[in-house]
Amino acid sequence: MNTMENQKEPTAAQKARAQELHTVLEHHIWRYHVLDSPEITDAQYDALFHELKALEEAFPGLRSATSPTQRVGGAVLGELPSMRHTLPMYSLDNLFAPADWNEFVARLQRLMPAVHPAAMDFWLEPKMDGLAMELVYEQGQLVRALTRGDGETGEVVTENIRTIRNVPLRLRGENIPEILEVRGEVIIARQDFSRLNQRQEEEGKKTFANPRNAAAGSVRQLDSRITASRPLRFIAYGVGQVEWQETLEGNVADPWDTQEATMQALGTAGFSLAEGATVCHGAEAVVPWLQALEAQRHSMPYDIDGGVVKLNRLDWQEELGFTARAPRFAVAWKFAAEQAQTTLLDIQVQLGRTGVLTPVAVLEPVEVGGVTVDRATLHNEDQIAAKDVRVGDTVIVQRAGDVIPEVVAPVLEKRPQGAVPYRFPSHCPECGTAVRQVAGEVAWRCPNAGCPAVLREGVKYFASKGGLDISGLGARWVELFIANGLVRTAADLFRLDMKALLSLERMGEKSASNMLEALEAARVKATLPRLLCALGIRHVGEQTAKALARQFGSLDALQNATLGALCAVPDVGPEVAGAVQDYFSQPANKALLEDFRSLDLWPVMAAKKPRPVAAVRPQAGQNAGQAISTTQQGSLFGLLGAQGTQQIPTEQEDASEAAPLEGKTFLFTGSLPTLKRSEAEAMVEEAGGEVLGSVSKKLDFLVVGEAPGSKLAKAEKLGIAVLSEEALLALLRG
Ligand code: IVH
Question: Are 193 and 261 contained in the same domain?
Answer without folding.
Answer: yes
